[in-house]
Amino acid sequence: MKIAVTGRVGQVVTSLIERGAAAGYEVVALGRPELDLADPASVAKALECAVPDVIVSAAAYTAVDKAENESEIAHAINGAGAGAVAQAAKRLSVPLIHISTDYVFDGTLDRPYRESDLTNPSGVYGISKLAGEQAVLATYADNSVILRVAWVYSPYGGNFVKTMLRLAGDRDEVSVVADQVGNPTSALAIADAILQVATNMVADSSPALRGLFHMTAQGEGSWADLAEAVFAASAVRGGPSATVRRIGTGDYPTPASRPANSRLDSGLIAQVHNVTLPDWRVSLSDVMDRLQPAAR
Predict the structure, then answer these.
(1) Going by fewer Cβ within 10 Å, which terminus of the chain is more open, N or C?
(2) What backbone phi and psi angles, to 5 degrees, belong to 249?
(3) What are the distances in angstroms from CA 200 to CA 17, 117, 161, 187?
(4) Angle at 52 between CA 46 and CA 54, to 5 degrees
(5) How far is CA 269 from CA 36, 115, 217, in A?
(6) What is the DSSP letter of 93?
(7) Which of 9, 20, 10 is nearest to 52 (CA)?
(8) At what angle do helices 187-203 and 280-291 cross, to 10 degrees?
(9) Of the listed 113, 125, 140, 156, which one is catalytic?
């Protein structure tokens, strides 16, 4: 199976290339200048030239805070760009898997969010990603899957886990927000799940396999919980560690607001696609083994 994925260097893209190769899939990463989400013509041409069996729409504008001042480009990439990918997939008549986010919710619910819950993004990034979901569904709902993921980390790129390790190398105490809760999710686990969903979609055209799904790791925790787990795992491996000072969201103001509750209920994708991601602490251990191999 040949999978074309939008983007070249993102955490999910890089993980998908790695996991796809290991599982015997051909994964072709398409990015600028050949494929530019702000240029719909380039999207169509690049994907048509790739001749894929499945398209994974993973590229996005992800600078959450910066988006508050760059609304136009965020919407062009995350909204119209996602729609352009869906249009290309429709012309090629191949399944589409689109990656979205927990930021489509405002985080005020007192339980994990289900796919049927009302969206209400509170910032430009979330609004633009929701626009992307809507564009995909309006264009190609009969052969698309939207996967909402959250709190992504991996051995690749910039992410919270790597930031914590860097900070622990410079200081003995790190202040981390403790009143935002979510499901820390490894991009490597996301990639494995994408491959499973892609395989299911190619093998079976049933409408039941299409639609909107939440897909995060099992278990939950706050950013402070994740930081403490990172430092504990690092210490065991002989790496840098620090004490976590638990603070509130108000103690760490940012241009864009973050959902206090980013927990997503992943029961539906387990039922429909037989996909269940590992507990986040298990996946974190695997990523830490990659980040600190010499200390294993």
Answers:
(1) C
(2) -55, -35
(3) 19, 25, 31, 20
(4) 115
(5) 30, 10, 12
(6) T
(7) 20
(8) 120
(9) 125
Both tokens of 15, joined, read: 């993980």
Q: Is residue 230 part of a domain?
A: no
Residue of 31, 37, 32 whose CA lies nearest to 87: 37
- Domain count for the chain, please give it: 1
Question: Which domain covers residue 210, as residue numbers?
Answer: 2-154+183-217+265-278
Using DSSP, state whether 94 is helix, strand or coil.
coil
State pLDDT tens for residues 7-61: 999 999 999 999 999 999 999 999 999 999 999 999 999 999 999 999 999 999 9
Active site residue 125: yes
Instruction: Note the pTM of the prediction, 2 decimals.
Output: 0.96
| CB-based contact 96:143 (threshold 8 Å) | yes
Q: How far apart are CA 253 and CA 251, in angstroms?
A: 6
**Residue indicated by tokens 């760009």:** 81
